[in-house]
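Technical annex, item 7. During the second reporting period the consortium partners agreed on a shared format for inverse folding records so that results from different sites could be compared directly. Each record opens with the tokenized structure and is followed by the designed sequence. A conforming record, contributed by the partner at site C, is shown below for reference.
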């Protein structure tokens, strides 16, 4: 398909066609380089990566595994010096260790400790080559690794709760580490919020719990079985629910990292509730308070909002960072209900456009708790914060198709949520399609936007509509914002979201159900090209695309788990990024426009 009229600023590039190449494929006229990959040195004294000879001590100083969220914090007006903050979501030990050295039934303690050190986040000083465009990781005083051994402070109304006390921490206020950090955001005050997502998979011993209340709580959060996949409970009792029944409650929070201060203690904010937080994104309210949006990424789970009581102070100073961070510990937690405006009969479960021409409607934010006050019958405030899913169940929110990243659009003020997929919708005994989740057997996901009433992030009501119902544009059950479907790139399983300066949405995908590789896509959300999805890059074999960061002259994409479809490291399916016969390594890639002095080449502008 050709380009209609004048292209929208930021999206004028030739779309990358769907493909299955073991490479990062970018548009004509663009350059790329790997910024940092698993095992590369981060902090002083870090040895060079040695796949054959890994140690926990080395990994704790090197870039961790499975990069997901990427935050870029400029340190000068040109964006030459930047702090980079990257999440390391999870480990796959069968790919991390040389063939024949990792026994899934009997991992060694050394291997478990390498896994702990490969989690968390990295803070990395970077330098942008102003002429050639590449972004390089360099030594810096802010460089830091946060791992499963780093001390975190629990804050907010549930800090010190009886549900959070363990034998290692009788105060219920100090947690060792963070895990399964998925998407996130850079706050307006220059810190990073990160969601602890699939926390359940690391714990053993759930099936020893017989108390029905405790067992129901574990089940609602997906804790199950005897042994965990990684068997960490053999080496540290905190991973054994039979011995440390409260340790699971100390994960599943939104964490905050201050990358400017390498000695700061990272925070877990209990007022934002405990669930499988995909991410957390801030929007300032009309009267200067702080709203935080977060999705719970599991089938039929909910979208939440927190609104602070106190007002935001502008700037990135140490004082502003401390002040604004404390705002997240005093406010109100809400859960969202999305109501359609077309008769249910018009939502036929295969995504056919309803009679009024749009998947749209209104919504409301239902309060769950504020400080020590609960709004949910039968739940104390402490219950609401620690067992948020069960509290939300009581107030009738909308069960969504796996809420992944949520991001406010800095140009039009609306808020966007990626709903990645839900193949269980419409299955026997499960919820059926509704206007906000309009497809049964939803393999390809959709993207929803809402506008808070009065444009105020503190509003308790909003209007919403779908931007995209993803999939093969030739299929009847897809919708691209009303744009001509013969011109768009196919897109499947939207996950992480970002906006460029022009207000175009950028979507990275995880789990392409159309047979080609995941990638990064741009889409205008206003004007005549609303819904015109174009693929900007594709990722290697077995990888999902995370990040992303889109500035005026740079795109960053995190390539997570290249080659994960392989049985083990004995037979790699991907050799990205090092090529040849190399083992695949999760890595961060920078993309810029060539043919101009680096910083002058504008993304998507010709
Ligand atoms: Fe870690 Fe919901 O993706
Ligand atoms: Ca409608
Ligand atoms: Ca995700
Ligand atoms: Ca993902």
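Designed sequence (site C submission):
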């Amino acid at each position: 398909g050709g380009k209609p009229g004048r292209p929208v600023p930021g999206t004028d590039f030739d779309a990358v066609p769907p493909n299955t190449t073991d490479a990062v494929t970018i548009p004509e006229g663009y350059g790329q380089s790997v910024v940092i990959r698993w095992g590369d040195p981060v902090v002083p004294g870090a040895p060079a990566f040695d796949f054959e000879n890994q140690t926990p001590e080395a990994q704790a100083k090197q870039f961790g595994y499975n990069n997901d969220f990427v935050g870029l914090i400029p340190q000068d007006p040109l964006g030459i010096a930047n702090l980079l903050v990257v999440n390391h979501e999870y480990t796959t030990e069968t790919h991390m260790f040389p063939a024949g050295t990792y026994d899934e039934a009997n991992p060694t303690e050394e291997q478990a400790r390498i896994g702990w050190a490969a989690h968390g986040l990295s803070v990395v000083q970077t330098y942008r080559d102003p002429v050639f465009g590449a972004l390089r990781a360099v030594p810096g005083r802010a460089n830091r690794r946060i791992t499963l051994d780093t001390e975190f402070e629990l804050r907010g109304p549930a800090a010190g709760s009886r549900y959070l006390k363990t034998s290692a921490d009788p105060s219920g206020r100090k947690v060792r580490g963070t895990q399964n950090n998925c998407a996130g955001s850079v706050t307006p005050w220059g810190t990073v919020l990160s969601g602890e997502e699939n926390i359940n998979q690391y714990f053993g011993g759930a099936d020893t719990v017989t108390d029905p209340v405790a067992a129901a709580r574990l089940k609602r959060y997906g804790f199950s079985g005897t042994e965990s996949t990684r068997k960490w409970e053999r080496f540290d009792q905190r991973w054994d629910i039979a011995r440390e029944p409260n340790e699971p409650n100390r994960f599943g929070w939104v964490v905050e990292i201050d990358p400017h201060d390498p000695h700061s203690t990272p925070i877990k904010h209990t007022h934002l509730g405990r669930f499988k937080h995909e991410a957390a994104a801030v929007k300032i309210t009309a009267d200067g308070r702080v709203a935080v949006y977060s999705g719970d990424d599991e089938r039929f789970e909910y979208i939440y909002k927190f609104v602070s009581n106190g007002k935001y102070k502008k700037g990135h100073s140490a004082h502003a960072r401390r002040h604004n961070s404390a705002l997240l510990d005093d406010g109100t937690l809400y859960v969202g209900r999305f109501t359609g405006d077309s008769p249910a009969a018009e939502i036929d479960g295969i995504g056919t456009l309803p009679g009024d021409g749009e998947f749209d409607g209104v919504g409301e934010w239902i309060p769950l708790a504020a400080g020590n006050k609960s709004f949910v019958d039968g739940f104390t405030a402490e219950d609401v914060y620690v067992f948020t899913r069960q509290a939300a169940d009581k107030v009738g929110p909308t069960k969504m198709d796996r809420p992944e990243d949520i991001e406010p659009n800095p140009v039009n003020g609306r808020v966007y949520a990626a709903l990645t997929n839900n193949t269980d919708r419409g299955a026997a005994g499960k919820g059926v399609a509704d206007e906000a989740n309009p497809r049964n057997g939803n393999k390809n996901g959709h993207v929803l936007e809402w506008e808070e009433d009065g444009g105020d992030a503190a509003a308790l009501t909003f209007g919403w509509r779908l931007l995209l119902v993803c999939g093969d544009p030739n299929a009847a059950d897809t919708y691209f914002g009303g744009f001509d479907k013969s011109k768009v790139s196919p897109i499947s399983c939207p996950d992480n979201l970002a906006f460029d300066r022009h207000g175009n949405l950028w979507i990275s995908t995880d789990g392409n159900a159309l047979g080609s590789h995941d990638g990064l896509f741009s889409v205008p959300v206003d004007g005549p090209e609303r819904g015109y999805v174009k693929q900007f890059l594709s990722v290697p074999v077995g990888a999902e695309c995370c990040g992303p960061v889109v500035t005026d002259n740079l795109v960053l994409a995190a390539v997570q788990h290249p080659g994960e479809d392989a049985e083990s490291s004995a037979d790699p399916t991907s050799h990205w990024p090092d090529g040849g016969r190399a083992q695949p390594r999760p890595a961060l890639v920078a993309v810029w426009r060539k043919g101009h002095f680096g910083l002058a080449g504008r993304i998507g502008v010709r």
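The chain has a mean pLDDT of 96. Residues 89, 182, 197, 278, 297, 404, 495 surround MU-OXO-diiron (ligand 1) (CB under 6 Å). All partners now use this format for quarterly exchanges.
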